[in-house]
Amino acid sequence: MKTSELMKASFLYCTLVVTCIFSACSNSPSTGSQSSSEGTAVADSGQENATIESAKAKFAKGYELLSKSDCKACHDTGNEIVGPSFERIAARYVYSDANITHLAERVITGVKTGEGVWGKAEMTPHVNMSKTDAEEIIKYVLSMPPKQGLDTIAK
Question: How far apart are CA 101 and CA 83, in angstroms?
Fold first, then answer.
């Protein structure tokens, strides 16, 4: 099998797995407080959702590009799949021109196994993505409010 065919097959497999995971989860929005199986109250995430919606509006182009890309095969807003969640990325990197440029370059060139700051996972290069598009996606990701308790490194 050629390398390009192998990459396409891997991407399709990852997409299928992610689709199955998301299909198993409920997509209905939460309203008010919920109770866990042990009867303890879980805080309403309405304010957090409003902040994410605000970021989507302000960085609509980046959100649209992200939605159409293969990024969500390995990344999710709040959950780690293969790579870090977008919230962890936002917690680790402050919104700055230097970080936007650096991370956009990482998206385009990819990360080889063991060379990243998130462990041993590899990130596939996105050589066909323009620098402008990569920067728009990174602007959206870095605009997300970081959750408390995530590892933050002001870079």
Answer: 19
